[in-house]
Design goal:
Belongs to the CDIP1/LITAF family. This protein has two helices and five strands. It is of the alpha+beta class. The chain has a domain of 58 residues. The strands form two sheets. It has a three-stranded antiparallel beta sheet, with no helix packed on it. β1 and β2 form a beta hairpin. It is elongated, with a radius of gyration of 15 Å. The relative contact order is 0.31.
């Protein structure tokens, strides 16, 4: 039986932080990556009606979710959703 990985838990941090990686079993400082999330999708739908906002929904970092990963094994250990 293959173990199913759950979604990473919500974390309030925008910047890398020290945490425990369950896969590597070490304490490490996370690496952050910005990804498009629900807020980007909602802004895209809004852009269908108001095209002047199209530039902001995918280019602006402030609208993207932040995923924290272990630098050793690249396992997601946390996520900060904008919505």
């Amino acid at each position: 039986m293959v173990p199913v990985e759950a979604d990473p838990p919500y974390v309030p941090h925008k910047k890398p932080y020290r945490t425990y990686c369950p896969r590597c079993q070490i304490v490490t400082t996370t690496v952050t990556h910005r990804k498009c999330g629900l807020l980007n999708l909602l802004l895209f739908i809004l852009c269908l009606f108001l095209p002047c906002f199209f530039v902001f929904c995918f280019w602006c970092k402030c609208f993207k979710d932040i995923e924290h990963q272990c630098p050793e094994c690249k396992t997601p250990v946390g996520r900060r959703d904008r919505i």
